[in-house]
Amino acid sequence: MKSLLGLLLIPFLLAADPKCSPTYTYQADLKICWRWLKAYAPWSWAKDDCSQELSGNLPSIHSGYENALYAQIFANITGDTRWWLGAQKGADGQWKWTDGTPFDFQRFAQTNDTQSDCAYLDAKDQQWKLELCKQQSQWFSFVCVKLPIPSISQP
C-alpha cells in the first residue's frame, strides 16, 4: 500500500510548478519564475539566450529588498557571486532594463568608468559593477527570469 501511494505521488512531486513555464522554477519571495542554465557567457550572449531561447530576460531589480534577495538566493542556489543583470546604458547615456520595466532603483558601485554599458550583481557586496556589453572576455553566470503565468480563477 505504501509503495502504491508513493507511485501516485511521484507525478505530483516531479510536475513543474503550475505558476511557471515547464523549464522555470517559481521563487515566491521575488514573485518571479527563474531558470539558471549552469552556464557562463558574455552579457550579449546571456541576454540573447534568455530572450530568444527561453522567452525570459536577465533580471531587473526595483528595490533594495529585491537586490538583497537576488544576491542571497542566487548565491546559495548557484554557488556563484556574480550574475549579469538586464541593465544596459543606452546611446543617450540613460540606464534601462532590457525587460522594459522602469529603471527605478540602482546600486552601482562607485567608479570613474564612463565607457561600460552593462552591469552585473556582485553578491559579495550587493553592488552593481560595470562591464562592456560587447566585451567577449567577461563571462559571468546568468539567470533568466520572467513573470509567472497568470492563474485563471473560477467563480
Structural overview:
- The structure is a single chain.
- With 155 residues, this protein is α+β, with helices and mostly antiparallel strands.
- Helix content is 25%, strand content 26%.
- The chain is built from three helices and seven strands, in the order αββααβββββ.
- The protein has helices at 2-14, 43-53, 64-78, and strands spanning 25-27, 32-41, 82-89, 95-97, 118-122, 127-131, 140-146.
- A four-stranded antiparallel sheet has the order 4-3-5-6. A three-stranded antiparallel sheet has the order 1-2-7.
- The longest helix has 15 residues, at 64-78.
- The radius of gyration is 18 Å and the shape is globular.
- The termini are far apart.
- Residues 1-17 have low confidence and may be disordered.
- InterPro entries: C-type_lectin-like (IPR001304), C-type_lectin-like/link_sf (IPR016186), CTDL_fold (IPR016187), Snaclec (IPR050976).
- Residues 33-136 form the C-type lectin domain.
Any descriptors?
155 residues, 4-stranded antiparallel β-sheet, globular
Count of helix runs: 3
In percent terms, what proportion of residues is strand? 25-35%
Radius of gyration: 18 Å
SSE order: HEEHHEEEEE
Low-confidence spans: 1-17
What order do the strands of the largest sheet run in, or round the barrel if closed?
4-3-5-6
Structural class computed from helices and strand pairing: alpha+beta
Q: Largest sheet, if any?
A: 4 strands, antiparallel
The CA-CA distance between the termini, in Å, is 37 Å
Percent of residues in helices comes to 25-40%
Average pLDDT level: 85
DSSP, total strands: 7
